Amino acid sequence: MNRLRDLREDKDLYQKDVAKYLSMSQTGYSQYETETNDIPTEVLKKLALFYDTSIDYLLCLTDERKPYPKSFLE
User: Fold this and answer.
1) What pLDDT is recorded for position 2?
2) How far apart are CA 54 and CA 64, in angstroms?
3) What is the DSSP string of 17-71?
4) Distance CA 72, CA 11 (A)
5) pLDDT in tens, 12-41
């Protein structure tokens, strides 16, 4: 997934850095970037928060990088 790689590189991070944040192996995270494995919903949430964007942006459903406004239900 190019968006994941681009966001990571924009922050000057390595795959191992993001994998550590997600409490997983670098290899496992790499499989998300290369679309070898689907990303679980909970991981998508963490990545959206980490990169301050929306899950829709991560999944290339929108080109709007800004996150949605926070819900009052949180």
Assistant:
1) 85
2) 8
3) HHHHHTTS-HHHHHHHHTTSSPPPHHHHHHHHHHHTS-HHHHTTS-S--SPPPPP
4) 29
5) 999 999 999 999 999 999 999 999 999 999
Q: For residue 50, give the nearest of 29, 35, 31 by alpha carbon.
A: 29
The residue type of 69 is P
What pLDDT shows up at residue 74?
55
Token digits of residue 28: 């496992």
Mean pLDDT of the chain: 92
Question: In this structure, what token pair is assigned to residue 20?
Answer: 């550590």
Spatial contact of 15 and 34, defined as CB atoms under 8 Å apart: no
CA angle at 28 for the pair 1 and 53, rounded to the nearest 5°: 45
For 24, 54, 59, the CA distances from 64, given in Å and listed in that order, are: 28, 8, 11
